Known about the structure:
- The protein is an alpha+beta fold.
- The radius of gyration is 19 Å and the shape is globular.
- The chain is about 30% helix and about 25% strand.
- Strand 2, helix 2 and strand 3 form a beta-alpha-beta unit.
- It folds into three domains: about 45 residues, Uridine Diphospho-n-acetylenolpyruvylglucosamine Reductase, domain 2 (2-Layer Sandwich), CATH 3.30.43.10; about 120 residues, Uridine Diphospho-n-acetylenolpyruvylglucosamine Reductase, domain 3, CATH 3.30.465.10; about 110 residues, 2-Layer Sandwich (Enolase-like, domain 1).
- The longest helix has 21 residues.
Amino acid sequence: MTAEIRPLPAFEYLTPSSVGEAIAALAAHGGAAKLLSGGTDLLLRMKKQKSAPTILVDLNGISELEFIELRASALHIGAGTRLASLYESPLVREKAAALAEAIRVMSSPTIRNRATIGGNLCNASRCADTQAPLLALDARLTLRGPAGERTVQAVSFFIAPGNGSDKTVMRADEILTEVVIPIRRGTSAFVKLGRRRGSSTAIISAAVFALITNRTFEDIRIAVSAFGSTPIRGRKVESALTGRSVDAQTISTAAVLIRDEIDPISDERASAAYRREMAPVVIRRALGRVAIGE
């Protein structure tokens, strides 16, 4: 049986050449317009008739959204930067290892060559692989709209999983322009649990950042995602590790506390009980990479 090929719904296609033009287009058309970045998710949803915007504002021709730069004490990444470019960047691998690792194990090379970090974040999928690393790296996001520019912390960006302007703190007339990752002493790592090795969709993921001094956790941030609604920081785990010695028992005891902080879901990939059971495991593995060299 031949699969049904559904045509895309009719829409008006706009190609602004600057962020200012794109913002003006959003302001003029309101909720009828959708931003097109990589398009790896939006176009698929349109083909499946799960989304039917009447206007697409294509950001792919805006060169000012594509960059990876080290400025002063922060790594600046344009929202239109392709995921493949981020993974291949020596700067990202050195300064934001958890992000590079997350991109390495997500989807396929074809998708990574097309998808952008801004699109991955703004889509707000619960299993998006870039979320946990950016929370653990204490990243901030720059949003620009008719009222000007504002900055939000990555940990506060997500409201609910899914697609649409009501899933993040972005306003309907705003564009994510930049991701800023502070450069601090320490190392980071990312671990994803999927149904198979490689680029499968995440069941649960963890990212950690740690500064270890004299085998003691001096500074630590832990984030988990893909378990349910939105990514979170594991505050109880962080508190239990800060100032403590780096050893397997300390890590194991602290990691279990994540079960008090998450409310996992059951879906076609895994049950809530399995996600709750595996949450400390992915945290232990990520901590092992930065702390014990496992």
